[in-house]
Amino acid sequence: MKQLSLPFRVAILLLAIIPFARGDDAATKDLLTSTPWKITLQKGTTIVRNFNKDGSFSTVGKPDEGGQWRVTLNTVVQIHPGGKKDVFDLPLNPNGTTGTASDGETLTAVQVIGTGAETQTAPAAITNQQREDAKAMLVSGPWKFTGIGWGAVCTFTKDGGFAIEGEFGPGGTWSIADNVVSIAYDGRAEVLALPLNPKGTNGKDPNGRPFTAVLQSTANAPAAGGPATAGAATDTASVEAQLEAVPWRFLGTWWYAVRVLAKDGTFTTKGNGESGTWAVANNSVVLTFPDGHKDSFALPLNPNGMHGADKEGNPVLITAGKPDPAPASAHPHSDLDFLKQTPTPGPADIARENAGSIATLVSGPWKFTGRSWTVVRIFAKDGTFTSVNQPKEYGTWKIVGAKINLVYQDGHIDTLSLPLDPKGTDAADRVGIPVLAVLQDTSGAAPTPAPTAAPVASNPAPFGNTAPAATPAPRPQGPTPPPFGTTLPPAQ
Fold this sequence. Notes:
eight-stranded antiparallel beta barrel, 4 helices, elongated, disordered C terminus
Protein backbone atom coordinates (compact mmCIF):
# COMPACT_ATOMS: atom_id res chain seq x y z
CA MET A 1 0.00 0.00 0.00
CA LYS A 2 1.28 3.39 -0.95
CA GLN A 3 2.05 5.60 2.06
CA LEU A 4 0.41 9.02 2.31
CA SER A 5 2.83 11.94 2.12
CA LEU A 6 3.18 14.17 5.19
CA PRO A 7 1.59 17.28 3.60
CA PHE A 8 -1.40 15.18 2.48
CA ARG A 9 -1.91 13.84 5.99
CA VAL A 10 -1.71 17.37 7.42
CA ALA A 11 -4.34 18.52 4.93
CA ILE A 12 -6.68 15.70 5.95
CA LEU A 13 -6.19 16.60 9.62
CA LEU A 14 -6.99 20.25 8.91
CA LEU A 15 -10.16 19.26 7.04
CA ALA A 16 -11.27 17.27 10.07
CA ILE A 17 -10.65 20.23 12.39
CA ILE A 18 -12.28 22.94 10.25
CA PRO A 19 -15.95 21.96 10.88
CA PHE A 20 -15.42 22.09 14.64
CA ALA A 21 -13.55 25.40 14.35
CA ARG A 22 -16.39 26.85 12.31
CA GLY A 23 -18.87 25.91 15.00
CA ASP A 24 -16.68 27.57 17.66
CA ASP A 25 -16.14 30.59 15.36
CA ALA A 26 -19.89 31.23 15.14
CA ALA A 27 -20.29 31.25 18.93
CA THR A 28 -17.21 33.45 19.33
CA LYS A 29 -18.44 35.96 16.74
CA ASP A 30 -21.88 36.14 18.36
CA LEU A 31 -20.38 36.79 21.78
CA LEU A 32 -17.83 39.30 20.46
CA THR A 33 -20.42 41.40 18.61
CA SER A 34 -23.19 41.18 21.24
CA THR A 35 -21.95 44.11 23.37
CA PRO A 36 -19.01 46.52 23.61
CA TRP A 37 -15.83 45.29 25.30
CA LYS A 38 -13.84 47.25 27.88
CA ILE A 39 -10.10 46.71 27.37
CA THR A 40 -7.66 47.45 30.20
CA LEU A 41 -3.97 47.52 29.29
CA GLN A 42 -1.12 46.48 31.57
CA LYS A 43 -0.20 50.10 32.35
CA GLY A 44 -3.77 50.95 33.35
CA THR A 45 -5.06 52.59 30.17
CA THR A 46 -8.72 51.72 29.47
CA ILE A 47 -10.66 51.85 26.19
CA VAL A 48 -14.07 50.61 25.02
CA ARG A 49 -14.20 48.82 21.67
CA ASN A 50 -17.18 47.83 19.51
CA PHE A 51 -16.97 44.82 17.20
CA ASN A 52 -19.34 44.80 14.23
CA LYS A 53 -20.75 41.76 12.42
CA ASP A 54 -19.22 42.95 9.12
CA GLY A 55 -15.73 42.33 10.52
CA SER A 56 -14.92 45.93 11.43
CA PHE A 57 -14.22 47.44 14.84
CA SER A 58 -14.14 50.94 16.33
CA THR A 59 -12.90 52.45 19.57
CA VAL A 60 -15.18 54.79 21.56
CA GLY A 61 -13.82 58.35 21.58
CA LYS A 62 -10.85 57.46 19.32
CA PRO A 63 -11.91 57.64 15.64
CA ASP A 64 -8.38 56.80 14.44
CA GLU A 65 -8.35 53.46 16.33
CA GLY A 66 -10.46 51.29 14.08
CA GLY A 67 -9.87 48.49 11.66
CA GLN A 68 -10.80 44.89 10.84
CA TRP A 69 -11.06 41.82 13.04
CA ARG A 70 -11.05 38.10 12.35
CA VAL A 71 -11.13 34.84 14.31
CA THR A 72 -8.27 32.37 13.96
CA LEU A 73 -8.08 28.93 15.56
CA ASN A 74 -7.18 30.31 19.00
CA THR A 75 -7.27 34.12 18.84
CA VAL A 76 -9.31 37.14 17.80
CA VAL A 77 -6.98 39.40 15.80
CA GLN A 78 -7.71 43.13 15.50
CA ILE A 79 -5.79 44.66 12.58
CA HIS A 80 -5.26 48.44 12.49
CA PRO A 81 -4.83 50.34 9.19
CA GLY A 82 -1.09 50.67 9.79
CA GLY A 83 -0.72 46.91 10.23
CA LYS A 84 -0.51 46.86 14.04
CA LYS A 85 -2.40 43.98 15.70
CA ASP A 86 -4.16 43.55 19.04
CA VAL A 87 -5.01 39.97 20.03
CA PHE A 88 -7.62 38.35 22.32
CA ASP A 89 -6.93 34.78 23.42
CA LEU A 90 -9.73 32.24 22.93
CA PRO A 91 -12.07 31.10 24.31
CA LEU A 92 -13.67 34.48 25.09
CA ASN A 93 -14.66 35.01 28.73
CA PRO A 94 -17.20 37.83 29.27
CA ASN A 95 -15.80 38.39 32.77
CA GLY A 96 -12.17 38.61 31.68
CA THR A 97 -10.43 37.62 28.43
CA THR A 98 -6.65 37.94 28.28
CA GLY A 99 -4.64 39.05 25.28
CA THR A 100 -1.73 41.09 23.95
CA ALA A 101 -1.69 44.67 22.61
CA SER A 102 0.24 45.70 19.51
CA ASP A 103 3.14 47.08 21.62
CA GLY A 104 3.46 43.82 23.58
CA GLU A 105 1.50 44.94 26.64
CA THR A 106 -0.77 42.34 28.20
CA LEU A 107 -4.47 43.27 28.24
CA THR A 108 -7.75 42.15 29.76
CA ALA A 109 -11.09 42.53 27.95
CA VAL A 110 -14.45 42.46 29.78
CA GLN A 111 -17.92 42.65 28.26
CA VAL A 112 -19.69 45.94 28.94
CA ILE A 113 -23.19 45.41 30.36
CA GLY A 114 -25.71 48.20 29.91
CA THR A 115 -28.41 49.78 27.81
CA GLY A 116 -26.33 50.42 24.70
CA ALA A 117 -25.18 53.93 25.52
CA GLU A 118 -21.64 52.57 25.82
CA THR A 119 -21.53 52.21 22.04
CA GLN A 120 -21.68 56.01 21.76
CA THR A 121 -19.67 57.30 24.70
CA ALA A 122 -17.17 55.76 27.06
CA PRO A 123 -18.68 54.88 30.46
CA ALA A 124 -17.93 57.52 33.06
CA ALA A 125 -16.56 56.45 36.42
CA ILE A 126 -19.22 56.51 39.11
CA THR A 127 -18.87 58.94 42.00
CA ASN A 128 -18.58 57.92 45.63
CA GLN A 129 -22.13 59.18 46.23
CA GLN A 130 -23.49 57.09 43.32
CA ARG A 131 -21.67 54.07 44.71
CA GLU A 132 -23.19 54.60 48.18
CA ASP A 133 -26.67 55.07 46.67
CA ALA A 134 -26.30 51.80 44.76
CA LYS A 135 -25.20 49.98 47.91
CA ALA A 136 -28.17 51.34 49.87
CA MET A 137 -30.63 50.22 47.21
CA LEU A 138 -29.04 46.79 46.85
CA VAL A 139 -29.41 45.98 50.56
CA SER A 140 -32.86 47.60 50.96
CA GLY A 141 -34.78 44.39 50.19
CA PRO A 142 -34.70 41.02 48.42
CA TRP A 143 -34.16 41.02 44.64
CA LYS A 144 -35.84 38.57 42.29
CA PHE A 145 -33.55 37.39 39.48
CA THR A 146 -35.14 35.95 36.33
CA GLY A 147 -33.00 34.49 33.57
CA ILE A 148 -33.35 32.03 30.72
CA GLY A 149 -34.68 28.88 32.41
CA TRP A 150 -33.97 29.89 36.00
CA GLY A 151 -35.01 32.27 38.77
CA ALA A 152 -34.01 33.06 42.35
CA VAL A 153 -34.58 35.57 45.16
CA CYS A 154 -31.42 36.99 46.74
CA THR A 155 -30.90 39.12 49.82
CA PHE A 156 -27.77 41.31 49.99
CA THR A 157 -26.13 42.44 53.23
CA LYS A 158 -24.08 45.53 54.03
CA ASP A 159 -20.96 43.47 54.76
CA GLY A 160 -20.68 42.47 51.09
CA GLY A 161 -22.38 39.08 51.36
CA PHE A 162 -25.61 37.70 50.01
CA ALA A 163 -27.85 34.67 50.48
CA ILE A 164 -30.12 32.85 48.05
CA GLU A 165 -33.57 31.98 49.43
CA GLY A 166 -33.94 28.25 49.87
CA GLU A 167 -30.17 27.66 49.99
CA PHE A 168 -28.58 27.60 53.42
CA GLY A 169 -24.94 27.38 52.37
CA PRO A 170 -22.37 30.18 52.56
CA GLY A 171 -23.99 32.20 49.74
CA GLY A 172 -21.56 34.56 48.05
CA THR A 173 -20.11 38.08 47.90
CA TRP A 174 -20.80 41.28 45.98
CA SER A 175 -18.83 44.40 45.13
CA ILE A 176 -19.25 47.55 43.02
CA ALA A 177 -16.64 48.58 40.44
CA ASP A 178 -16.53 49.90 36.86
CA ASN A 179 -20.25 50.70 36.66
CA VAL A 180 -21.40 47.19 37.57
CA VAL A 181 -22.28 45.16 40.66
CA SER A 182 -20.24 41.96 40.59
CA ILE A 183 -21.96 39.01 42.29
CA ALA A 184 -19.58 36.12 43.00
CA TYR A 185 -20.52 32.66 44.27
CA ASP A 186 -19.41 29.06 43.80
CA GLY A 187 -16.49 30.13 41.59
CA ARG A 188 -18.79 32.00 39.19
CA ALA A 189 -19.81 35.63 38.75
CA GLU A 190 -22.83 37.57 37.54
CA VAL A 191 -22.93 41.31 36.91
CA LEU A 192 -25.67 43.93 37.32
CA ALA A 193 -25.52 47.20 35.37
CA LEU A 194 -25.51 50.52 37.20
CA PRO A 195 -27.48 52.58 37.99
CA LEU A 196 -29.77 50.07 39.70
CA ASN A 197 -33.45 50.28 38.77
CA PRO A 198 -35.74 48.71 41.40
CA LYS A 199 -38.37 48.00 38.72
CA GLY A 200 -35.91 46.06 36.53
CA THR A 201 -32.10 46.08 36.29
CA ASN A 202 -30.30 44.33 33.43
CA GLY A 203 -27.54 41.82 34.12
CA LYS A 204 -25.62 38.93 32.59
CA ASP A 205 -24.77 35.47 33.91
CA PRO A 206 -21.30 33.82 33.65
CA ASN A 207 -22.07 32.72 30.07
CA GLY A 208 -23.03 36.21 28.96
CA ARG A 209 -26.75 35.45 28.85
CA PRO A 210 -29.10 38.26 30.01
CA PHE A 211 -31.25 38.28 33.13
CA THR A 212 -33.35 40.86 34.98
CA ALA A 213 -33.30 41.74 38.69
CA VAL A 214 -36.36 43.37 40.33
CA LEU A 215 -36.47 44.70 43.90
CA GLN A 216 -39.24 42.84 45.75
CA SER A 217 -39.71 45.19 48.70
CA THR A 218 -39.35 48.94 48.28
CA ALA A 219 -40.33 49.86 51.85
CA ASN A 220 -36.76 50.94 52.68
CA ALA A 221 -35.49 51.46 49.14
CA PRO A 222 -34.22 54.89 48.06
CA ALA A 223 -35.48 56.30 44.78
CA ALA A 224 -33.34 55.42 41.76
CA GLY A 225 -30.36 57.78 41.76
CA GLY A 226 -31.50 59.46 44.99
CA PRO A 227 -30.07 59.49 48.52
CA ALA A 228 -30.57 56.49 50.75
CA THR A 229 -32.82 56.42 53.78
CA ALA A 230 -31.93 54.19 56.67
CA GLY A 231 -34.29 51.28 57.17
CA ALA A 232 -35.34 50.31 60.64
CA ALA A 233 -33.95 47.11 62.08
CA THR A 234 -36.30 44.15 62.30
CA ASP A 235 -38.34 44.26 65.53
CA THR A 236 -38.28 40.52 66.27
CA ALA A 237 -40.88 40.68 69.05
CA SER A 238 -43.33 42.59 66.85
CA VAL A 239 -42.79 40.21 63.91
CA GLU A 240 -43.32 37.18 66.13
CA ALA A 241 -46.54 38.62 67.53
CA GLN A 242 -47.91 39.24 64.02
CA LEU A 243 -46.92 35.74 62.88
CA GLU A 244 -48.72 34.19 65.85
CA ALA A 245 -51.89 36.23 65.36
CA VAL A 246 -53.26 34.54 62.21
CA PRO A 247 -52.78 31.38 60.13
CA TRP A 248 -50.50 31.82 57.09
CA ARG A 249 -51.29 30.55 53.60
CA PHE A 250 -48.41 29.01 51.61
CA LEU A 251 -49.05 28.74 47.85
CA GLY A 252 -46.55 26.84 45.70
CA THR A 253 -46.69 26.12 41.99
CA TRP A 254 -48.95 23.06 42.48
CA TRP A 255 -49.55 22.76 46.21
CA TYR A 256 -51.12 24.72 49.06
CA ALA A 257 -50.94 24.60 52.86
CA VAL A 258 -52.21 26.64 55.82
CA ARG A 259 -49.75 26.80 58.70
CA VAL A 260 -50.25 28.02 62.26
CA LEU A 261 -47.19 29.45 64.03
CA ALA A 262 -47.50 29.10 67.79
CA LYS A 263 -45.96 31.19 70.56
CA ASP A 264 -43.81 28.28 71.74
CA GLY A 265 -41.83 28.32 68.47
CA THR A 266 -43.60 25.36 66.86
CA PHE A 267 -45.87 25.23 63.82
CA THR A 268 -48.59 22.89 62.60
CA THR A 269 -50.33 22.49 59.25
CA LYS A 270 -54.11 22.39 58.96
CA GLY A 271 -55.45 19.18 57.51
CA ASN A 272 -52.26 17.10 57.70
CA GLY A 273 -49.51 16.13 60.10
CA GLU A 274 -46.77 18.50 58.92
CA SER A 275 -45.16 20.25 61.87
CA GLY A 276 -41.85 21.62 63.07
CA THR A 277 -40.28 24.72 64.61
CA TRP A 278 -39.95 28.29 63.41
CA ALA A 279 -37.75 31.28 64.22
CA VAL A 280 -36.98 34.79 62.98
CA ALA A 281 -33.36 35.04 61.86
CA ASN A 282 -31.28 37.06 59.37
CA ASN A 283 -34.24 39.17 58.21
CA SER A 284 -36.28 36.10 57.32
CA VAL A 285 -38.60 33.53 58.90
CA VAL A 286 -37.17 30.01 58.87
CA LEU A 287 -39.30 26.87 59.28
CA THR A 288 -37.41 23.73 60.31
CA PHE A 289 -38.98 20.31 59.71
CA PRO A 290 -38.33 17.08 61.69
CA ASP A 291 -36.01 15.73 58.97
CA GLY A 292 -33.80 18.82 59.37
CA HIS A 293 -34.56 20.62 56.13
CA LYS A 294 -35.45 24.31 56.27
CA ASP A 295 -37.87 26.51 54.34
CA SER A 296 -37.97 30.30 54.57
CA PHE A 297 -39.57 33.57 53.56
CA ALA A 298 -38.16 37.08 53.61
CA LEU A 299 -39.11 39.97 55.86
CA PRO A 300 -40.60 42.55 56.22
CA LEU A 301 -44.00 41.00 56.84
CA ASN A 302 -46.63 41.79 54.24
CA PRO A 303 -50.01 40.12 54.80
CA ASN A 304 -50.86 40.64 51.13
CA GLY A 305 -47.90 38.62 49.83
CA MET A 306 -44.31 37.69 50.66
CA HIS A 307 -41.76 35.75 48.66
CA GLY A 308 -40.47 32.50 50.11
CA ALA A 309 -38.81 29.28 49.05
CA ASP A 310 -39.30 25.59 49.80
CA LYS A 311 -36.52 23.11 50.51
CA GLU A 312 -35.71 22.82 46.80
CA GLY A 313 -35.41 26.60 46.40
CA ASN A 314 -38.73 26.75 44.52
CA PRO A 315 -40.71 29.99 44.97
CA VAL A 316 -43.64 30.13 47.39
CA LEU A 317 -46.15 32.95 47.91
CA ILE A 318 -47.12 33.54 51.56
CA THR A 319 -50.21 35.54 52.54
CA ALA A 320 -52.11 36.05 55.80
CA GLY A 321 -55.14 33.86 56.38
CA LYS A 322 -58.25 34.64 58.35
CA PRO A 323 -58.07 34.39 62.17
CA ASP A 324 -59.67 31.32 63.63
CA PRO A 325 -63.07 32.09 65.21
CA ALA A 326 -62.89 32.82 68.91
CA PRO A 327 -64.37 30.15 71.20
CA ALA A 328 -67.79 30.86 72.71
CA SER A 329 -67.63 32.77 75.98
CA ALA A 330 -68.28 30.76 79.15
CA HIS A 331 -69.46 33.87 80.99
CA PRO A 332 -73.22 34.47 81.50
CA HIS A 333 -74.82 36.91 79.11
CA SER A 334 -75.13 40.51 80.16
CA ASP A 335 -78.14 42.70 79.58
CA LEU A 336 -75.86 44.94 77.52
CA ASP A 337 -74.64 42.16 75.19
CA PHE A 338 -77.10 43.30 72.54
CA LEU A 339 -74.94 46.41 72.08
CA LYS A 340 -72.08 44.19 70.84
CA GLN A 341 -74.13 41.97 68.57
CA THR A 342 -74.29 42.35 64.81
CA PRO A 343 -77.87 42.60 63.55
CA THR A 344 -79.06 39.43 61.86
CA PRO A 345 -79.32 40.06 58.10
CA GLY A 346 -82.83 39.91 56.73
CA PRO A 347 -83.99 38.11 53.58
CA ALA A 348 -83.35 41.18 51.42
CA ASP A 349 -79.77 41.50 52.74
CA ILE A 350 -79.09 37.81 52.16
CA ALA A 351 -80.50 37.97 48.64
CA ARG A 352 -78.34 41.00 47.86
CA GLU A 353 -75.17 39.33 49.23
CA ASN A 354 -75.92 36.12 47.36
CA ALA A 355 -76.42 38.00 44.11
CA GLY A 356 -72.99 39.61 44.51
CA SER A 357 -71.36 36.25 45.31
CA ILE A 358 -72.97 34.61 42.29
CA ALA A 359 -71.81 37.42 39.99
CA THR A 360 -68.23 37.00 41.23
CA LEU A 361 -68.34 33.20 41.05
CA VAL A 362 -69.46 33.08 37.40
CA SER A 363 -67.30 36.02 36.25
CA GLY A 364 -64.33 33.86 35.25
CA PRO A 365 -62.44 30.60 35.80
CA TRP A 366 -61.16 29.84 39.31
CA LYS A 367 -57.89 28.08 39.98
CA PHE A 368 -58.09 25.66 42.93
CA THR A 369 -54.84 24.56 44.59
CA GLY A 370 -54.81 21.81 47.23
CA ARG A 371 -52.17 19.94 49.18
CA SER A 372 -50.55 18.46 46.06
CA TRP A 373 -52.80 19.32 43.12
CA THR A 374 -54.18 22.19 41.11
CA VAL A 375 -57.13 22.48 38.72
CA VAL A 376 -59.18 25.22 37.05
CA ARG A 377 -62.97 25.16 37.50
CA ILE A 378 -65.64 27.12 35.61
CA PHE A 379 -68.97 28.00 37.22
CA ALA A 380 -72.14 28.60 35.18
CA LYS A 381 -75.18 30.69 36.06
CA ASP A 382 -77.41 27.59 35.86
CA GLY A 383 -75.79 26.20 39.03
CA THR A 384 -73.39 23.76 37.37
CA PHE A 385 -69.59 23.66 37.19
CA THR A 386 -66.95 21.89 35.10
CA SER A 387 -63.18 21.40 35.44
CA VAL A 388 -60.62 22.16 32.73
CA ASN A 389 -58.95 18.98 31.41
CA GLN A 390 -60.78 16.94 34.08
CA PRO A 391 -63.99 15.67 32.38
CA LYS A 392 -65.03 13.57 35.41
CA GLU A 393 -64.82 16.50 37.86
CA TYR A 394 -68.15 18.26 37.36
CA GLY A 395 -71.33 18.81 39.33
CA THR A 396 -73.59 21.46 40.80
CA TRP A 397 -73.01 24.39 43.14
CA LYS A 398 -75.31 26.02 45.69
CA ILE A 399 -75.03 28.72 48.36
CA VAL A 400 -75.70 27.24 51.80
CA GLY A 401 -75.30 29.70 54.66
CA ALA A 402 -71.77 31.17 54.62
CA LYS A 403 -70.44 28.65 52.10
CA ILE A 404 -70.83 27.52 48.52
CA ASN A 405 -71.18 23.75 48.29
CA LEU A 406 -69.68 22.04 45.24
CA VAL A 407 -71.51 18.75 44.85
CA TYR A 408 -69.69 16.40 42.45
CA GLN A 409 -71.30 13.77 40.25
CA ASP A 410 -69.99 11.03 42.57
CA GLY A 411 -71.66 12.68 45.58
CA HIS A 412 -68.68 14.14 47.47
CA ILE A 413 -68.71 17.82 48.47
CA ASP A 414 -66.05 20.55 48.47
CA THR A 415 -66.76 23.99 49.92
CA LEU A 416 -65.95 27.64 49.18
CA SER A 417 -66.12 30.15 52.03
CA LEU A 418 -68.07 33.38 51.69
CA PRO A 419 -67.54 36.20 51.03
CA LEU A 420 -65.58 35.38 47.87
CA ASP A 421 -62.20 37.10 47.48
CA PRO A 422 -60.97 37.07 43.85
CA LYS A 423 -57.38 37.32 45.08
CA GLY A 424 -57.69 34.21 47.25
CA THR A 425 -60.74 32.53 48.78
CA ASP A 426 -60.46 29.86 51.44
CA ALA A 427 -61.95 26.50 50.46
CA ALA A 428 -61.82 22.89 51.67
CA ASP A 429 -61.85 19.48 50.04
CA ARG A 430 -64.15 16.60 51.01
CA VAL A 431 -62.14 15.75 54.14
CA GLY A 432 -61.60 19.34 55.26
CA ILE A 433 -58.02 19.86 54.03
CA PRO A 434 -57.51 23.56 53.11
CA VAL A 435 -57.70 24.61 49.45
CA LEU A 436 -57.14 28.05 47.93
CA ALA A 437 -59.29 29.37 45.06
CA VAL A 438 -58.08 32.34 42.97
CA LEU A 439 -60.14 34.01 40.25
CA GLN A 440 -58.13 34.00 37.02
CA ASP A 441 -60.10 36.62 35.10
CA THR A 442 -61.52 39.25 37.42
CA SER A 443 -62.43 41.93 34.87
CA GLY A 444 -60.56 44.59 36.83
CA ALA A 445 -59.74 42.84 40.12
CA ALA A 446 -56.23 41.55 39.73
CA PRO A 447 -55.75 38.10 41.28
CA THR A 448 -52.81 37.22 43.46
CA PRO A 449 -50.61 35.18 41.11
CA ALA A 450 -49.01 31.92 42.12
CA PRO A 451 -45.23 31.77 41.71
CA THR A 452 -44.30 31.07 38.10
CA ALA A 453 -41.19 29.51 36.70
CA ALA A 454 -39.64 27.76 33.76
CA PRO A 455 -40.01 23.97 33.59
CA VAL A 456 -37.42 21.61 34.96
CA ALA A 457 -37.03 17.87 34.64
CA SER A 458 -38.82 16.86 37.83
CA ASN A 459 -41.61 18.20 40.05
CA PRO A 460 -40.62 19.68 43.45
CA ALA A 461 -41.95 18.21 46.67
CA PRO A 462 -44.54 20.25 48.57
CA PHE A 463 -43.38 22.44 51.43
CA GLY A 464 -41.92 19.83 53.79
CA ASN A 465 -43.24 16.79 51.87
CA THR A 466 -41.91 14.19 49.48
CA ALA A 467 -43.33 14.42 45.96
CA PRO A 468 -46.07 11.80 45.32
CA ALA A 469 -45.05 8.73 43.38
CA ALA A 470 -48.03 8.97 41.04
CA THR A 471 -48.61 12.19 39.08
CA PRO A 472 -51.75 13.93 40.39
CA ALA A 473 -54.31 15.77 38.28
CA PRO A 474 -52.82 17.83 35.43
CA ARG A 475 -51.02 20.90 36.64
CA PRO A 476 -51.65 23.84 34.34
CA GLN A 477 -48.56 25.73 35.40
CA GLY A 478 -45.04 24.39 35.19
CA PRO A 479 -42.69 23.46 38.03
CA THR A 480 -40.14 25.94 39.29
CA PRO A 481 -36.66 26.82 38.01
CA PRO A 482 -33.28 25.72 39.37
CA PRO A 483 -31.47 27.99 41.84
CA PHE A 484 -29.58 31.14 40.90
CA GLY A 485 -27.61 30.65 37.68
CA THR A 486 -27.70 26.84 37.56
CA THR A 487 -27.98 24.99 34.29
CA LEU A 488 -31.23 23.20 33.54
CA PRO A 489 -31.06 19.39 33.52
CA PRO A 490 -31.83 17.67 30.21
CA ALA A 491 -35.51 16.94 29.55
CA GLN A 492 -36.56 13.41 30.45
